[in-house]
Amino acid sequence: MKIWYGRIFLLPSRMAAYLLAFLFLLPTMSPAQEASHSTGWVVIPVEEYQSLRARAFPSAVEPALPPVDATLTRVDYDLRIAGELATGRASLTVDVLRDGWVRVAIPSGLLVREARLDGKLVSLVAPAQGKGGGQLSAVLSHPGRAMLLLDIALPVASGAGEESMILPSTDSGVTRAVVQLPQQGVDVKLSGGLLVEKSEPSASTAVAGQSKWLAYGRGNEPLTFTWHRKLDDHRLEQPLRLRGSLIQLLGLGEDLASIYAEVNLEVNQGAAREVQIQLPETVNINQVSGAMVADWEMKPGELKVIFLEPVEQSARFVITGETRTAREGQIQVPLLRLLNTERESGGVAVEVLGAGEIKDVQSQGLESAAASDLGEMVANRQSPSLVAFRLHTGDAKANRSLTINVARYAQQAVLLANVEEARYQVLISSEGKVLVQARYAIRNNQRNFLKIALPQGATLWSATLAGRPVRPGESPDGNMLLPLEKARAGDDAPVFAVEVFYLSRQPAWNDKGQARLDLPALDLPISRTGLVLYHPLLFKVTPAPGAFRVERYGAPSSPALNPAVAAAAPAGQPAAGDGAAPSPEIQNFAYSYWSKSGARTARVLPIRVSFPAFGPSVFLVSELTAENHAESVELSYQREKKEGVR
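User: That's the sequence. What structure does it adopt?
Assistant: Structure tokens below.
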């Protein structure tokens, strides 16, 4: 179907609907009918026509209004100080951003005498009542950049020998100030900006006898100038009179001796730019530190310390270094000395680091003193072998020397506390009851108590110390505390035994299965451990590989755990008290305790219990158990069928 576009007539909506229906029926006409109509009409509502026209010819978008009417871009001051006023000109660069009348605020605090815009006088207006806090404004009407010139005056404040002037903060991005002062020999300070230039023309120029400053400010902060007349100081020209104190600490090591010295200077006249210190040839300086120290230089026999600025009153710094000395015998102590001082005080202290002591001392120009007399640095030392000396008051050039005789000792390990050997005897029944006798051979010269953490659910029966029943205490974490005997220091401290009996429960044994035996944890390391495990007659028990290994039985190596009857035991069999088969009386005793299940333990402690060892046994050993570590043994058991056994 062909469509012809012609004129558009605006018709009522009902007639437009009829015409649209007629157009939809055009495709159903015959070709002869379609050929007879050479032109066609398209009728649409007015609203659609207006929408299509707006899309075809869009209107231009109106520009957005600027966020502000005008901006104060820059403020330049050119001022001259005369007495209590600073007068001059302030140039305000203003950019107007929209048409119409706009207000531009004048910086507050300025006393404006006259305002000009493009060479013409303009009036400044006050803000509406209740707005602006009394700040004046200029009214501009043309968009673009304008220069507003103000003749201003500012007050100059004075007090405590100083004068100051404050330029107010503005909304401008840049503040530039040129200030002239009809005076020379002035020190000026600036806050709120940067002082770029300071000049004092010579007497031959036309502007002699005045000072000129150029500064830039941040704009949003006040710019404050503070100045005062320079004070003539002749201290640098006066002869230097110096007093000093040097306290030296020498630590004698095996190969090297460390040097630490504190120097305090007191200037009585003049100013000290540097100070010299005499050094022995063998001394090497590593560092000089102090608040006034700028640099230091070491030359043969001398150390020069340079200050940041001349010291007029006092200064303090610290020297650290080292030197090589003999390990023992006669040692000449290297002494540091202050040079070019009228009076020198202080002292020297020497300590021996490591195993050794000072036997003999020979000194000249020194007198013996207490460590506390040389200050906190020496008084805080904890060395058992330390000698301190104070310098003789008087001539700073007096001879001084110090020679000491050092004796060194071979270092030996100091035993604190250790479990040399632990022995356990364990009796397990098929009902899951476990009776354990734990014995420990201990050397001790410092510890007061031994903390033992029994396996969970265990009930203590008895505890002994060196064969004497004791009542254990309880630690804050709920574990058991046993008192210990103390001995003298060294490896020759006697060994004593600590013994513990306790009862615990496990699941009953079936015909075949796995079992786990947990041992106590001690807060001391254990050198070696032996364990004799007695199990029921009808079961075969196999220990799993782990910390313990199976070996042929051996008697305890520690004398504290080896009873006197051990010598009478057959070779390869446990002795009485260490795994021997008990008598019927002991067996009945054990059964009576087992039947009561430890219910009366709290009332009968402390008691001495004999271990009821019976049944087949396995001997296990291990070495080097860490402190607070509980070892365990994994067991595999199986019931055996033997003839004649029911």
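The longest helix spans residues 584-596.
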